[in-house]
Structures are given as C-alpha cells and as structure tokens.
Write a structure and sequence with these properties.
Ald_DH_N, 14 helices, about 35% helix, five-stranded parallel β-sheet, EC 1.2.1.3, binds 2-aminohexanedioic acid, seven-stranded mixed β-sheet, Aldehyde Dehydrogenase, Chain A, domain 1, 2 domains, oxidoreductase, alpha/beta, globular, Ald_DH_CS_GLU, about 20% strand, Aldehyde Dehydrogenase, Chain A, domain 2
C-alpha cells in the first residue's frame, strides 16, 4: 500500500533532513552514522520513514547548559514580547498545517482529519498563550500593618522538561511549551521514541521563528532518546518542572524521581473514561459520541471512551444501534479520508489488544463485535485491528485497566447512584460524560457526589477536549493540569512581596520587640 502523501516533498517543504542530527538545538554536530539512531516506522504501511540521531551522553549536559544560558536571557524579555514569539509560531503552524498534519497522520497512524485537528490544537494554544502573556495576574492583598503594601507576583521557573507520548505527538508538547514560554521558561522536549520525526518538524519550524527574532535556540531544545533519557531528565535538579504524559507506570516512576529531589511535576497519565447513557438520553447524539470516543485515534487517546454504562430500559435498543454502527466502520489507511479507523501504533500495541481481549473472555466477557488483527495487502503493517465491543460486568479486572486500543466495554445499570458508582469505581480519573436531557441527572453527575474525574461532560463524549479548559485528571491519572484556564500557574513560582513605606517597623501579629 502506498501512502497518500509524498513524504519526501513534505520533508523538503519543512526542511527536515532525516539522518542528519543537526536539527536538535542541542547543537549536536556531525553525522548520524556511528551514532545511536532511532528509526521511525509508519504503522500505516510498515515503511521505515527515517532515522534520527539519539542524544548521546555527553551532549545531554551541553543541551541543559544551553537551555540554562537561554533562560537567563528569556526571563528578562517582557511577557507580551514572549507572547509575540509564540504568536509567530502559531502563524508558522497555520502555514504548515497540511504538511505537519499529514506527517503526524503518517508517522503516528491517526486519520488525516485528526492529524489536522492536532495541528489546530497547537494553533489554538498559541493563540491562547499569546493572550495569556498579558494576563499573568497576581493578587494584591490588604496588609495588617500601617504603611505597608502586599502583593504577589509570578516568576518563571527555569528549565521545563516535557516528556510526551506517541498518541498526541506534537499537540501535548505545544500545550506545555507555549504556556511555559510565555511564562518565561525554556523547554527541553523528549518526545516519544515512536514519533521522533514530527518532533524534528516542529523544532525546525520553531527554530526559524527564534532565528528571525534574534532569540537563542536554547529556548526550545529537543532531546531524542528512550526511557533512560526520560529518567535522566526527571532526576536532573537543573530541570525545575517535569511535565510528563504517558502511562500510569511511567508516571509513577517519574513522580518518584522528581519528588526525591523535591522538584515539581505535572502528570497526565492514563484514563478509563466512561459515558453514562441514561433513559433520558438523545440517542442520536449518544451514538456518534460513543463510537467516535471508542474508535477515534484507534482507541489511543487518554480520553478515549472505554466503558459505556447504559440504563437497562434502553440497553438492548442502544446495543443494537451500536453494533450496526460498528459494522459500518471502514478500517484502513488513515490518509484515505473515507476510512474511519487507522492502525495501532505498533505490533506491541496489537499484542496488548489481543491480550486484553483474551483476559476479558477469561473473566466472562461476551463479545458482541469480535476483535481481530486484520490481514491482507491493505493491512501489511500488521498494526490494523478491528474495534470490538464486549458485554461485561463492571468489576472485571480488565475493565478497570486502561488498554490503549479500540476495545469498548458495555454494562447495564438501574439507578443513577449505581451508574455514578460504576463510573467512579476505576483507579483512573481523567474524562467522563453523561448523556441525558434530564436536568436532575445531569446536575447530580456534575455535583460533588458525581463524577470524580478531571473532565465531566454533558451530552458530548469523553474525548476531544478544547484547549481553553484545564486538561488533566485525578487518582492514577496523576492530578496535573495543562493547557487552558489557570493551568499556567504550575509553570511559574509565586512570590509574596511585602513593602514597608513607613518609618517604623511594626511586626506582624502585633508582636512587640523594643530595642
Ligand atoms: C491525550 O490523549 O493525551 O481531549 C490528549 C482530547 C484531546 C487531547 C487528548 N484534545 O481528546
């Protein structure tokens, strides 16, 4: 199968030279030959797209030193001017939306529409961060002492380490980086080793913006490597904040390493997201929400819908519509816009999918749409699987586990209390949704006694959050918030300032200390 994009033309337009390691701002000179390289394979057609050089041991320190030097300059640039740099980055992304979106789609395997959508998220966060650069507000407080003024201000942290996952290989980086930059930080990005090329493309785009503005490239550093590199970043006391996206297993390890040095972390880890479909739901809205949530990005979003909790009165009717919709799904090359579902990221992911299906069956799950690995010429990469649906009991161990694949678990409930209990009965707490036109049900779901997730939606699905809100979740999802609202505060340090403009020294709490 051939891809629908001319990859070498994309490389040329984006000035990407695979195998040449000089794209990293780590100023790594020389040729990739002889160095450890990371090979990027497309799950679309199994082709080796390119190899990029991994960062070698010595170069790591050089990168951090360069980032630290850039910080000394960048922190003194007024925030709105930093916002102007980010605005220009957003403009460049608009120009490259087609190419970058197609490259995301080809390297990661998501649909072309979702590849474009991912770049749109980057553009949106640049717009948001540009506005934010004039709104890094602190409070002023009333002092209890005469002739005193109290206020707080927010200062940048320094070097921010960003560890991102393969499934949103560029958008998640941009949520972190755009906010971190306007806050006055510099970033060191370790992308997933499964998607190294799109990271190179972003770095190329940004490097041009920095050069045009006479700014040091160290404001944005790219370090390519595997898990040991991530651990090194997490353990590095020169890196003030680590923002990590990925599995709960990875997050626990990063959290422990960062906490051991009392560093800061933002963790955006696994989800096990459910939609409650009540008997008052508009099923014409519920159906596409459930199907897109479960099969979009081949079930590889943190926010993918993994569980449907359906009221018993409408259970059979909804199940029937769901099965019918699944039978119409077209699985194939994600660059072909007539397909709904592309491949999983690699064969390990396929093995996890198969393993979860087997575990579900062993626990008593009944598949109403069977899963399978697809074969034949169109599926030559070996990464294409059929999205499947199992009827389960909410307490199965597999149902409480996040499997990054299009496996949907459906279950019945009778009362709202029961539905909310089931929704909350998993270790993860990222996204959740209710489908109902009944205001009592909706408000109960959103109340303190309702969903325990970081995201709770009414009459939309669990995935596809806008960048304007704070993104993240509770429990094993890690508790961090990225992107919009006031998530920026995690990228800055708060300083409380008290100024005495009187000729006395009154002490707080009325303490007397006479000399
Ligand atoms: C992720 O899967 O890590 O809400 C991020 C969504 C997207 C982001 C998902 N905006 O589905």
């Amino acid at each position: 199968m051939t891809s629908a994009i001319d990859i070498s033309a994309v490389f040329e337009r984006m000035a990407i030279k695979p195998i040449n390691p000089a794209w990293s701002t780590g100023r790594i000179e020389g040729d990739a030959a002889g160095e450890v390289a990371i090979t990027s394979f497309s799950p679309v057609d199994g082709q080796e797209i390119a190899a990029v050089a991994a960062l070698d041991e010595g170069a790591y320190d050089e990168v951090i030193t360069q980032a630290q030097a850039a910080f000394l300059q960048w922190r003194n640039v007024p925030a709105p001017e930093r916002g102007e740099m980010v605005r220009q980055f957003g403009e460049e992304l608009r120009r490259h939306k087609q190419d970058l979106g197609a490259l995301v789609s080809y390297e990661m395997g998501k649909s072309l529409q979702e590849g474009f959508g991912e770049v749109q998220e980057m553009i949106d966060i640049c717009d948001f961060a540009t506005g934010l650069s004039r709104q890094l507000y602190g409070f002023t407080m009333q002092s209890e002492r005469p002739g005193h003024r109290m206020y707080e201000q927010w200062h940048p942290l320094g070097v921010v380490g960003i560890i991102s996952a393969f499934n949103f290989p560029v958008a998640v980086w941009s949520w972190n980086a755009a906010i971190a930059w306007v806050c006055g930080n510099v970033c060191v990005w370790k992308p997933s080793e499964k998607t190294p090329l799109v990271a190179v493309a972003c770095q190329r785009i940004l490097a041009r913006v920095l050069a045009r503005n006479g700014l040091p490239e160290g404001i944005s550093c790219l370090v390519q490597g595997g898990q040991p590199l991530g651990e090194r970043l997490a353990g590095d006391h020169r890196v003030a904040l680590i923002s990590a996206t990925g599995s709960t297993r990875m997050g626990k390890s990063v959290a422990a390493t960062v906490a051991a040095r009392l560093g800061k972390s933002i963790l955006e880890l696994g989800g096990n997201n459910a939609i409650i479909i009540t008997k008052y739901a508009d099923l014409d809205v519920a159906l596409p929400a459930a199907v897109f949530g479960a099969v979009g990005t081949a079930g590889q979003r943190c926010t993918s819908t993994r569980r449907l909790i359906i009221h018993e009165d409408i259970y059979e009717a909804f199940k029937e519509r769901l099965v019918k919709a699944y039978r119409q799904l077209r699985i194939g090359n994600p660059l072909d816009e007539s397909n709904h579902v592309g491949p999983l990221i690699d064969k390990d992911a396929v093995a996890n999918y198969m393993g979860a299906i087997a575990r579900c069956k062993a626990e008593g799950g009944r598949f109403i749409i069977e899963g399978e690995v697809l074969s034949g010429q169109a599926y030559g990469s070996g990464c294409y699987v059929r999205p499947c649906i199992a009827e389960v009991s909410a307490d199965y161990a597999i149902v409480k586990t996040e499997t990054f694949a299009p496996i949907l678990y459906v279950m019945k409930y009778r009362t709202m209390d029961e539905a909310i209990h089931i929704q909350n009965s998993v270790p993860q707490g990222l996204s959740s949704a209710i489908m109902t036109l009944n205001i009592r049900e909706a408000e109960q779901f959103l109340s303190a006694a309702g969903s325990d997730c970081g995201i709770a939606n009414v009459n939309i699905g669990t995935s596809g959050a806008e960048i304007g809100g704070a993104f993240g979740g509770e429990k094993e999802t890690g508790g961090g918030r990225e992107s919009g609202s006031d998530a920026w505060k995690a990228y800055m340090r708060r300083q409380t300032n008290t100024i005495n403009y009187s000729d006395k020294l009154p002490l707080a709490q009325g303490i007397k200390f006479d000399l």
